[in-house]
Write a structure and sequence with these properties.
The complex is a heterodimer of chains A (153) and B (724). Chain A is an alpha+beta fold and 153 residues long. Chain A has helices at 22-29, 80-91, 101-114, 120-127, 137-152; strands at residues 2-7, 10-15, 48-51, 54-57, 70-72. The chains are: A alpha+beta (153), B alpha+beta (724).
C-alpha cells in the first residue's frame, strides 16, 4: 500500500508493503544510497539515519511505523556539527573502504549535538553500535575529538 | 631462503598460474582489450592520454586509471602519488578511477593477469606508474617547448606549472591537446629519490577518496540503480555441496514485486523490483535440497580428525638437521597444539554485482579483485567473446581477500542469474549478511602441533606438524603447489626467522567439502600465531627475554631484527612484566616482503577477558610511499587481527554454519580497539605492501602477554567464547 513519509524535508509517497524497512525505501525507492546495508538486524550501524533528529537503524524500522516523523539521511546533513565532523573525517583520512562511514558520521554528529566535549568513554558508548571491519576506530576517535575542538571555537 | 626469495618464488608461481588461467579460458587474450581510452569520460573537451594510466584533461585535472581495486588499502592514492611525483603535478589536480578490465594493459606485474592481492599493488606499480608519469611530463614539456619555441631542456615543471626562464608559464591543461599529438618518448629518466617531494612526505598526499566516503557520495556496487533493473537474491543450500532437488515458487510469486524465480547452478534465484520483495520472495520459496554429496562434518569432528593426523608422518615442507633425533633424546619436550577455526572475511558490503547483457555484449560492474578471471568467467557463461565483455571495477566495501576468487564464484553466479532471466534484463545480485557468513570461502580451519626442546638455556630442536585444507588445490592457481606442498598453507612455518639447529615442518592436506579462501595475510594468519607463541614459550622455558632472546636467534634476518629493535625502543621495553596488572607480549612476522613487529600491553578485564590497552608497532616496507596510509593499514591490520584473535569464529555444526550475523560473528568494536603507536623504519629498499602484514603479529603478541598474567597462551582461537 502507499505510505507517505518525510525524508530530508520532502514528502514522498511510496507504494510498498507495510513491513518494508525504511532502509530499502530510502535506497531502492528514493535512491538515497548514502545510507548503507550491512546486517539487516541493527547490529552494525551502517544504515543509521535520523528520525526527528535521533539516530535510528533504518534496517529495522518498518516504513509503516514512520508516521509523521521527519527522516534525515546523510545526503541532507547540514549545520555546524555536520561540517565539523565531515571536515575532521577528511582531515584525519578516517575512511578505508568507506562503506560503514556514512553510519559512523551520522552517529558522531548525533553524539556532538548531545555532548559538546565527549570523553573517550562517551565516544565508546555512542559509537560502539557502529562496526568498522577495516577497524578505523583510532581515527574515528581522533576525528571526533578534533571536531569537538572545532566546535568549541 | 631469504624473504626476498620467498616473494620472488611466489611471484614466479603466480606468473605461471596466470599464464595457465589465460591459456585455459582465453585463447585470444589480446582481443579482450576493452580500450580504456574509449571508456574514459574526460573532465574537459580535449584530453591527453600518453599511456593507459594517465589522462590529462583541458580542465587541468590529471586522472590516474588504477588497475587495482580500491577497497580501503589505498591504491587510488598510492598509484596517483607515483604518477604525480614524476609528473611534478600539484596534488590538488590529481584524481583516480578504476581502469576497466584488461588482462594485458592492466596486468598485475606480479601475477601476469589483472588482479589485486598478496599486498602487491604498490610493489608492482612502483616503476610502472612512475614511468607513466614521467612520460606524460616529457610530452607536456615537449608541447610547451614547441609552443614557446624554446629548448625542452630549459623548461621546468613545478606543482603542475610548466615554466621557462623567459617568464613564460602554463598549466598542463593548456598543453594537453598539443601533447596528445606527440609521440611518446621511448625512454624516460626517473627521479633520484632525493628529489621526491610527494613520495614519503607526510601530509603531501591526503587520500583521494576521503571526501566521497565521508559524505555518502562514494558509489559501491550495491548503490547501482538503472531503469528496468531487477534485484536478485539466491537461495543456496544449507550445507556445502548440497543441490536443488525441486522447488515450489508459487507462494514466492504472490509477493508484490517478485517478477520471476529461476533455478541456477548455485541455487534458486528470486528476481524482484527491489531488495525487500526479493528477500520476502526468497523467504516464501520452498526448496528441497539433495544433500547426498554435502559435507556433514562439523568443526568439532574436523578438529578431532586433524589432531589424530598431526600425530602421523606428513609431507615434509622444511627440514634441516634432525629434530626428531634431538627430541627423542631430550630430557624434556615442550609441546603445544594450536587450533584455528574457520573465519569469514565479512566485508561490510556483502558481495554483490551488476550485469546487463544481450547478444552484442555484456557490461558487468562489481568489486572485482581478480578482474581477468571474473571477465573470462562471465564471457564463458554468457557465451560471448571476451572482447564483447566489459568489466568495470567498482569501489569495494571491504574484501580482506573475499573478492579475490580463483573460482570466480560471485561473477559466475552473477552471470548465471543474468543468463537465466535472459538478455536485456539488467540484474543486480545482492547477498545479505547471512548469505555472506554462511556462504563459505572461509579462512581454512587449521591445526598446528609443535614440539621443541631446550637445553642449557638454548633452543635445540623445533618440530611442527600442520593440518588443514588447500584452497589452491583444484583451482586455476594449482600450479603453485609443488611436491605436494601448497606454499600458502605453510608460509611462515616451514622456514623460521630463528636459527635453530635441528628443525622440521610437515604438512597434512585434508580434503573437506567446505570452500575456503585466502584471508588477509593468508597462511600467516595461523603460522604467525603458532610460531610466535611457541618461540616465546621456548624462550620463557630457556629463561630468556622475549626481545633479547628473539634477537639472539635472528642472525641473518637484519630487517626483521631492526623492526623488533625499533618497536622495543618505541615501547621503552623493559621486560614483559607484569607491572600494575599489565603485561607485555611480543609478535614479529615478515609477510609479503614487509617486516612488522608489535608489542601489546594487556590486562585481564571483566570476566577474565583480555583487555588490550596499547599496541606499539614498527614496520619496514621499503620506501614508504604514503606514510599515513601505511600507518592506517597498521592500525586497521591490528584491529582486524585482534578482533579475530579475540572473538572470530565460524563454526560448523554437522556441516551447517552456526554464526549468521554480527550478533554471533563477533567483530571488534570501538571500545575494544587499543591505542596504537607506529614507527615506520626508514628504508631505501623497493616498496613492499602493507595491506596484510599488520595482521599476523597481534594475536601472538596478546597471547604472549597473557602468558605473563598467569594464563596459558590460548591453544585454541578465538580467545574469548570459543565453542570448539
Amino acid at each position: 500500500m502507499a505510505h507517505t513519509i518525510t525524508v530530508n524535508g520532502t514528502r514522498h509517497s511510496v507504494d510498498v508493503d507495510d513491513d518494508t524497512p525504511l532502509l530499502w525505501v530510502l535506497r531502492d525507492n528514493l535512491q538515497l544510497t548514502g545510507t548503507k546495508f550491512g546486517c539487516g538486524v541493527a547490529q552494525c550501524g551502517a544504515c543509521t539515519v535520523y528520525m526527528d533528529g535521533q539516530p535510528l537503524r533504518s534496517c529495522s524500522m518498518p516504513v509503516s511505523a514512520i508516521g509523521e516523523a521527519k527522516i534525515t539521511t546523510i545526503e541532507a546533513l547540514a549545520g555546524k556539527e555536520a561540517e565539523a565532523v565531515q571536515a575532521a573525517w577528511v582531515k584525519h583520512d578516517v575512511p578505508q573502504c568507506g562503506y560503514c562511514q556514512s553510519g559512523q558520521v551520522m552517529s558522531a554528529i548525533a553524539l556532538l549535538k548531545e555532548i559538546r566535549k565527549p570523553s573517550d568513554r562517551d565516544i565508546d558508548l555512542a559509537m560502539n553500535g557502529n562496526l568498522c571491519r577495516c577497524a578505523t576506530y583510532v581515527r574515528i576517535r581522533a576525528a571526533i575529538h578534533d571536531a569537538a575542538r572545532t566546535l568549541e571555537g | 631462503m631469504t624473504a626476498h626469495d620467498i616473494s620472488l618464488s611466489r611471484r614466479n608461481l603466480l606468473k605461471g598460474a596466470g599464464a595457465l588461467v589465460i591459456g585455459m579460458s582465453l585463447p585470444q587474450a589480446g582481443r579482450a582489450q576493452s580500450g580504456a581510452a574509449q571508456v574514459f569520460k574526460p573532465g574537459g573537451a580535449a584530453s591527453f592520454a600518453p599511456n593507459a594510466f594517465v589522462r590529462i584533461a583541458a580542465d587541468d585535472t590529471v586522472t590516474v586509471l588504477v588497475k587495482h581495486i580500491e577497497f580501503g588499502q589505498g591504491p587510488f592514492t598510492g598509484l596517483a602519488t607515483l604518477v604525480a611525483e614524476e609528473l611534478d603535478a600539484d596534488w590538488a589536480q590529481m584524481r583516480a578511477e578504476h581502469a576497466v578490465s584488461d588482462p594485458k594493459l592492466y596486468a598485475n606485474l606480479a601475477f601476469g593477469i589483472q588482479g589485486t592481492g598478496g599486498s602487491t599493488a604498490i610493489a608492482n606499480s612502483w616503476e610502472q606508474m612512475r614511468k607513466a608519469g614521467a612520460t606524460a611530463r616529457a610530452m607536456l614539456v615537449q608541447a610547451a617547448a614547441e609552443a614557446w619555441k624554446v629548448p625542452a631542456a630549459e623548461i621546468g615543471v613545478e606543482k603542475g606549472v610548466l615554466k621557462h626562464a623567459s617568464g613564460k608559464q602554463g598549466r598542463f591543461g593548456e598543453f594537453a591537446e598539443a601533447a596528445s599529438k606527440l609521440q611518446a618518448p621511448a625512454e624516460v629518466k626517473l627521479k633520484d629519490p632525493a628529489q621526491f617531494r610527494l613520495i614519503g612526505k607526510d601530509g603531501a598526499t591526503p587520500r583521494l577518496d576521503s571526501l566521497g566516503k565521508s559524505t555518502g557520495k562514494a558509489q559501491f556496487t550495491i548503490d547501482i540503480h538503472t531503469p528496468e533493473m531487477l534485484t536478485v537474491v539466491v537461495a543456496r543450500p544449507p550445507r556445502f555441496g548440497g543441490k536443488v532437488t525441486s522447488f515450489d515458487a508459487s507462494e514466492a510469486k504472490k509477493i508484490k514485486g517478485v517478477v520471476d524465480v529461476k533455478q541456477i547452478p548455485s541455487g534458486v534465484a528470486v528476481y524482484a523490483t527491489g531488495t525487500w520483495p526479493a528477500l520476502k520472495g526468497r523467504e516464501a520459496l520452498k526448496v528441497t535440497w539433495d544433500e547426498n554429496g554435502a559435507e556433514k562434518r562439523g568443526s568439532r569432528e574436523l578438529f578431532a580428525e586433524y589432531r589424530k593426523l598431526a600425530r602421523t608422518e606428513g609431507t615434509i615442507a622444511g627440514k634441516h638437521g634432525d629434530a626428531e633425533a634431538v627430541l627423542a633424546k631430550a630430557e624434556k619436550v615442550i609441546e603445544a597444539e594450536y587450533a584455528f577455526p574457520y573465519l569469514a572475511h565479512a566485508p561490510m558490503e556483502p558481495l554483490d554485482g551488476y550485469l546487463e547483457w544481450n547478444a552484442q555484449g555484456a557490461l558487468a560492474r562489481l568489486g572485482s579483485q581478480l578482474q581477468t578471471v571474473d571477465h573470462m568467467t562471465i564471457a564463458k557463461i554468457l557465451d560471448l567473446g571476451p572482447e564483447k565483455v566489459t568489466v568495470e571495477t567498482v569501489l569495494g566495501g571491504g574484501s580482506f581477500g573475499r573478492r579475490a576468487q580463483p573460482t570466480s564464484e560471485l561473477a559466475a553466479e552473477l552471470a548465471q542469474v543474468a543468463k537465466a532471466i535472459g538478455p536485456n534484463r539488467p540484474v543486480k545480485l545482492v547477498r545479505t549478511r547471512e548469505d555472506d557468513l554462511s556462504g563459505g570461502y572461509y579462512r581454512p580451519l587449521f591445526l598446528h602441533r609443535l614440539r621443541g626442546a631446550v637445553k642449557d638455556g638454548k633452543i635445540t630442536a623445533w618440530s611442527a606438524s600442520l593440518v588443514g585444507q588447500s584452497f589452491l588445490k583444484g583451482s586455476p592457481f594449482e600450479a603453485m603447489i609443488k611436491d605436494g606442498i601448497d606454499p600458502v598453507m605453510v608460509e611462515g612455518a616451514n622456514e623460521l626467522p630463528y636459527e635453530i639447529a635441528d628443525f622440521r615442518c610437515d604438512l597434512h592436506t585434508v580434503d573437506v567439502g567446505v570452500p575456503t579462501l585466502w584471508w588477509r595475510s593468508v597462511g600467516h594468519t595461523h603460522t604467525g600465531y603458532a610460531v610466535e607463541c611457541f618461540i616465546d614459550q621456548l624462550l620463557q622455558a630457556a629463561g630468556q627475554d622475549p626481545v633479547a632472546g628473539r634477537l639472539a636467534l635472528m642472525g641473518k634476518q637484519q630487517r626483521l631484527a631492526n623492526v623488533l629493535k625499533a618497536v622495543a625502543d618505541l615501547a621503552k621495553w623493559n621486560g614483559p612484566g607484569p607491572v600494575d596488572g599489565r603485561a607485555r607480549g611480543v609478535g614479529v612476522v615478515e609477510s609479503f616482503g614487509s617486516y612488522v613487529a608489535q608489542i601489546a600491553e594487556v590486562s585481564l578485564g571483566e570476566g577474565g577477558e583480555p583487555k588490550v590497552h596499547k599496541v606499539w608497532c614498527a614496520v619496514d616496507c621499503g620506501v614508504a610511499v604514503n606514510p599515513d596510509i601505511i600507518r592506517a593499514q597498521m592500525e586497521g591490520g591490528i584491529g582486524f587481527g585482534l578482533g579475530h584473535a579475540l572473538y572470530g569464529e565460524l563454526t560448523l555444526d554437522q556441516g551447517r554454519p552456526v554464526q549468521g550475523n554480527f550478533d554471533s560473528y563477533r567483530s571488534l568494536r570501538i571500545n575494544e580497539m587499543p591505542e596504537v603507536e607506529i614507527r615506520i623504519v626508514p628504508s631505501t629498499e623497493k616498496p613492499t605492501g602493507v595491506g596484510e602484514p599488520g595482521v599476523p603479529p597481534i594475536g601472538p603478541a596478546v597471547a604472549n602477554a597473557l602468558a605473563r598474567l598467569g594464563r596459558e597462551r590460548p591453544l585454541s582461537l578465538p580467545m574469548v567464547g570459543g565453542t570448539v
